[in-house]
Amino acid sequence: MSRRYSFSDDGNSFEDLETSLDKALNHASNNLFSYTNTSNGHGNGSRTNSQGSAGAIPLATMASYPGDGSGHGMARSASAEHNDSSPLIASNLYANHNRSFSSSASSLNATARSLSMSSKRFLRKALGFFRHAHRELSSNGDRLRLSSGDAALGSTSSSQRFISPRSKSTTTTYPSNAISNAKYNPITFIPIILYEQFKFFFNLYFLVVALSQIIPQLRIGYLSSYIVPLGFVLTVTMMKEAGDDIARRRRDREQNNELYEVLNRSSPSALSNEIKLIPSRNLKVGDLVRLHKDTRIPADMVLLQTSDKDGSGEAFIKTDQLDGETDWKLRIANSASQSLTDINSLINNISLIVGNPTKSIHHFNGKLIYHPSSAAGSTSPTSSNETIALTVDQTLWANTVLASGTAIAIVVYTGVETRQAMNTTMTGVKTGLLELEINSLSKILCFTVFLLSVVLVLANGFPLKSTWYIDIMRFLILFSTIIPVSLRVNLDLAKSVYASQIQKDDEIPNTIVRTSTIPEDLGRIEYLLSDKTGTLTQNDMELKKLHLGAVSYAGDTMDIVTDYITSMLSILDSKPSGSMKKRDLGSKVCDLVLTLALCHNVTPSYEDEEDEAAGIVTYQAASPDEIAIVKFTELVGLKLYKRDRHTISLMHLATGKTFDYEILYNFPFNSDTKRMGIIVKDSQRDEIWFMQKGADTVMTTIVNSNDWLDEETGNMAREGLRTLVIGRKRLSSILFKDFVESFQNASLAMHDREATMQKIVSQYLEQDLELLGLTGVEDKLQRDVKTSIELLRNAGVKIWMLTGDKVETAKCVSISARLISRGQYVHQITKINHPDLAMNQLEYLKTNTNACLLIDGESLATYMKFFKHDFFEIVVKLPAVIACRCSPQQKADVALMIREITGKRVCCIGDGGNDVSMIQCADVGVGIVGKEGKQASLAADFSIDQFCYLSKLLLWHGRNSYKRSAKLGQFIIHRGLLISVAQAVYSISSKFEPLALYQGWLMVGYSTVYTMAPVFSLTLDCDIDEHLTRLYPELYKELTLGKSLSYRTFFMWVAISLFQGSVIQLLSQQFQTVKLENFKTMVALSFSSLIYNELIMVGLSINKWNKVMVSTIIITFLIYIGSVPFLGEYFDLEYVSSVSYIWQVAVLLAISLFPVWLSQYINRKLRPPSYAKVQTD
C-alpha cells in the first residue's frame, strides 16, 4: 500500500522512514559484528565477542531526538550495558582481556572494525543530513500552510487554545521555535539553483549543447570547450548563492542558540523548580521565561510579571524591527499574575486561553485564568476560577526587545506561528527589464543559428546525405558561441560593480543596495509612487496653530497662550466647578491646553536621577503628532512630569505646583477609529472627565453642534497643517459606573471583542462632547524636495503621492513640494461611493491629460472595485496623481495596476511600516530611514536617508548602470557573433562540412583571458559628466525609451559582426588558403585578428578613458602575445614570428575596422545623440 507524504503530524512518513532506516542500519551493524566475531572462532553470543568490538558505538545512540537538550544521546541504560548483542563503548577496561588471537584473525578483526567505524560515521552523517532536511521541509510546509490561510498548526477544530505552565503535552503539539531565513536546504539547493539558471534561454541552450557532446557522433573538438564555460557560470552562481545562504544560516544559528532562563522545565522527580538555560530554538508553548533588559523576545509571549519598582507591572518594549516604529511601547502585566510572589504560584495558579495565531500585531484576544490555591490542581479551563481579559497590552511579540527591567512571560506562539513570521513575506527574485530584453534577443540568435545550420546542410546539394540530421546538429554546436554563455556572469558581475559605486558615493551617504539584481532599472523608471509623511516631509512635527472658534493663536500670538497658562491657577479657581455656563476666553484656553496635556499616550522618561532632577526629559510615543503637542504644552507652561499605568502628573512651570490625575481608562489611537480618548479623575476636584481628540471626519459627529469646525479644518489643511479636533465631557458617577460594567463584559468577548468594546465606548462616552478647539501641526518638507521633484518631473517621471492624510493637507503639501506645478488644474474626485456617478467624473481627464488628479481613498476603492482598468487607462497618462486617505493595501494595489496596465517600470518610495507592501510590489522599491524606523528600509531594494538622494540615484547611477550594461551585453554578443561568422565562412569554404575552425583552448581563451577584462572595463565608462544629468534632466527620457539596447541597435551590431567576421576569415583564407597544410597558419592569422579587432573595438567605443581601461587593454594584449609561444598545437609559430604575419594582420584590421569607424563617425555628425549635443569637453 502506498503512503502519502505530507507535512502533517498524523502518519508522518518522514518520521516512519527515518525510524525504519535507523533500525535497519542498527540491525545490519549488529549482524556485521556477529559475523566478524563468529569468523574469528570465539563462539556466538559470548561476552568475548562483545569485547572484541571495542571502539564501536551502537547506532541507536546516534539517533538522539533533535529537540533533546542532552546532546548526542550517548547515555546508556543499565540493561543496555549487559546486552550481548550490542557492541560496547570503547574502554580501557578490556585492554588486556583475552588476547589469544592469531595475527591473521586480529588483522581481519581490526579491518572489520575500521570498516564498521567508517560505515557508521558515514551513516551518522547521512542520518543527520536526513533529519536536518526533514525538519526544514516540515518547517516550510508549516509556513506554506499558514500563509495559505489554513488552520493553525497546533489547533484542532476549536478557535481557542488552552495553555498552562503545568502541561507537558504542549511540547509535541506546536511548531518548533527555530528560526530559518535560509532560501535553500540541503535537498532543494541544487534543484532551485539549476531552475533559476536554466529558466533563462541562453543557459538552457548551452546545457543542451554541452550534453550533446556526450554523444560521439556530435562531438566537435574538445569536450572541455563546451563544459568548462557552462560549469564556470554555474560554479560562480552556486558559490555566490551558497555564500549568501551560509551567511543567513549563521545569523539564524546565532539567534537559535541564544540562551533563555526557563522556570518550569524541572523533572517530575525534582523537589523544587530549577532554572534551566534553554536555547531559543527549543522553547515550547507553555514555557515560563525570565527576560532581562535589552533581551530579544524569542517567541510570542504574554507578560505575567515585571520588576517594576512600584509593582504596577509596567514594562517597555522596542518594536522597531516589527512595525518600524522607533518609540517604546508600554506593556502591562495583569494584576493577578503580578501579585504572585514565587515561581510555584505562577506555575500552579495561572492558565491561559488564547485564540489561534493571526497576522495582526495590533490585536490580541485571550483570557488569563487565575486558579485559587484550593483549585490550583485543576487544569480545566472551565473550573470556577477568576477570568481576566488579555489584550495586546499584555503581549510581547517575537523579535521585539525588552527595553526596561526584568520580566517573566509565558510562551503562547512559536516558530512560524509568531506574528513576526506570519508577517514575513518571501519576496520573489526580481528580474530586471534589461535581462528580459537580452533573453528575447537570445531567442532571435538561436533561431538564426538553427536557420543557418539548415541552410548550410541544404546548400550541400540534393540528394541529402543519410546523416543530414547529424550535420545539422553539428552545425548547431559549432555556432553555439552565438549564444554567449558568459553573458550572465558578466552582467551579474557588472551589477556588483554598480552596487559598489552607489554605496561608495559620498554625495548620497549611507545608501545601501539590498537587491543587486536590478540597478539598470533605476535608469528606466517612468512612474514614481511616494508616501508623504516622512518621505516628502521630515516627520518632524511642530504645533503651529490653535483655534477656539472665535479666536486663533499662531506665531507671536502664542505668547498670549503662555500668559493665560501662567495665571492658570487663578483662572481655574475663579471658575465654578464643572460650570457649563459661558466662560471667558482665558478659561477656554486653559481648558484646551489642560486637555492637550492629559489626552495622549506620551510617556516621559529620564536617563538617570540626575536628569530627572534637572528636568531633562525624553518623550516616548507612537505618533510624533502627540510628542509635538506635549512639547507645546510644556513650552506654554504646563509640563508632563510623570506618567505610569494609573496616574499622570502635570507640573505648572510658573509656580512649580503639580496636578495629579488618576487614569481610569485609556483608548489608544488606531487607523480604524481615527481618534484616541482617556478617562481621568481630577484628584483635587473629585471630577471624572472623558477627553478625546481625533480627525475631523470622525469627531464632527461626536462633538456638540457648531458652525465653524468644517470651515476652519479646511483652512488649516490648505495651510499644510495636520488637524486634530479636541473635545471633552464630564461623567457623572452613575454614568461612569454603568459604562465600567458594560465595558468589562465586552472586554471578555472572544469574538469581535474590539468592535464590541468600541460600541460601548460610543454608546456611553462619545455623545455630545464639548468642543474645546482645533490644533494645527506642521510637518516640514524634507531637504531639497522641491528641486528633486522638479528634476524628476522634467525627466519625464510621472509622480503619484499616496498618503493617509486628508485631502486638503495633501493638496497643500503637493503645491508646496511642486508636485502640482503653478497654474496646473487640479481635478478633485472625493466621496464617490456609488458606481453610477464614477465614470462621469473622469470625462474631463480624457481630454485634458495635463491636469492633476486629487482623489480620496473612498473614491479610489469604488474605481478599483467597479472600473479598475478603465480608471487606470485614463489616469496613467496624467503627470501627477494625489491619492489621500489610502490604506497600505490600496497603495500596493495601485502599484500593481500601473505595472499591469502600462508595462512600464514603477518605483515606490516610503519610510514607514505601512509602505512595505507598496515597496515590495514595485519594480524598484526605495526605503527611507526615518523616524518611523527601518522597516521600509529593510524591505526595500535600495535604502537612502533623504528623498533628494533619489534624483541622483535615478538620473546618474540609473543612467550609468543601464547604458553600461547595454553596451556590455552588445559587446559580448558581438564577440560571440564574430567568431561564429568566421566559423560559418570556413564551413562554407570547406564544402559545407561541419568542421571546427577553432578548438580547445582557443575557444575557452577567446571569451575569457583574451577579451573579458577589456570588455568588462566598459562598466566604468560614462557618456556624459554628472553635472549635466541635473542640468539637462530631459536626457533621462531617452533611457526610458530603451534605445540603448533595442532591436535597431541589436541588428546594427549583427551587421557589424557579419562584416568584420567575414572580412577577417575571407582574407585569412585568401592569404593562406584552406588547405590542410596551411590550416595552422590560417588559424593563427584569423584568430589573432579576431583578438586584436575586439580590443580595438573596445577602445573605439569608450567615451571617457581612465587608468583601468588603458591597463586592461594593454595587459590583455601582452597576455595574448605572451601565450602565443605555448599555442604550437593550434598555430604555426614560425609564421607568427615572420613579417608576413604582421603586415597581413595589419591589412585585415584596417579593412575590418576603418569602414565601421567611418560609418559611426558620419552617423554621429549627421544625427548626433541627445547627450552629444550637451556634452562639453
Automatic annotation (TrEMBL):
GO terms for cellular component: endosome membrane; Golgi membrane; late endosome; plasma membrane; trans-Golgi network. Keywords: ATP-binding, Hydrolase, Lipid transport, Magnesium, Membrane, Metal-binding, Nucleotide-binding, Translocase, Transmembrane, Transmembrane helix, Transport. Pfam families: Cation_ATPase (PF13246), E1-E2_ATPase (PF00122), PhoLip_ATPase_C (PF16212), PhoLip_ATPase_N (PF16209). The keyword Hydrolase applies. Residues 166-220 form the P-type ATPase N-terminal domain. It is an enzyme of class 7 (translocase). InterPro entries: ATPase_P-typ_cyto_dom_N (IPR023299), ATPase_P-typ_P_site (IPR018303), ATPase_P-typ_TM_dom_sf (IPR023298), ATPase_P-typ_transduc_dom_A_sf (IPR008250), ATPase_P-type_domA (IPR059000), HAD-like_sf (IPR036412), HAD_sf (IPR023214), P-type_ATPase_IV (IPR006539). It is found in: Endosome membrane; Membrane. Residues 151-171 are annotated as: Disordered. It is a multi-pass membrane protein. One of its GO terms (molecular function) is lysophosphatidylserine flippase activity. ATP binds at D531, K532, T533, E626, F669, K693, R722, T803, G804, D805, R885, K891, N914, D915. SUPFAM superfamilies: Calcium ATPase, transduction domain A, Calcium ATPase, transmembrane domain M, HAD-like, Metal cation-transporting ATPase, ATP-binding domain N. GO terms for biological process: endocytosis; retrograde vesicle-mediated transport, Golgi to endoplasmic reticulum; vacuole organization. Residues 938-1168 form the P-type ATPase C-terminal domain. Its EC number is 7.6.2.1. Residues 154-171 have a biased composition (Polar residues). It catalyses: ATP + H2O + phospholipidSide 1 = ADP + phosphate + phospholipidSide 2; a 1,2-diacyl-sn-glycero-3-phosphoethanolamine(out) + ATP + H2O = a 1,2-diacyl-sn-glycero-3-phosphoethanolamine(in) + ADP + phosphate + H(+). Gene3D superfamilies: Calcium-transporting ATPase, cytoplasmic domain N, Calcium-transporting ATPase, cytoplasmic transduction domain A, HAD superfamily/HAD-like. PROSITE patterns: ATPASE_E1_E2. Its main location: membrane. Residues 273-419 form the P-type ATPase A domain. Belongs to the cation transport ATPase (P-type) (TC 3.A.3) family. Type IV subfamily. This is Phospholipid-transporting ATPase. It comes from Scheffersomyces stipitis (strain ATCC 58785 / CBS 6054 / NBRC 10063 / NRRL Y-11545). The gene is NEO1.
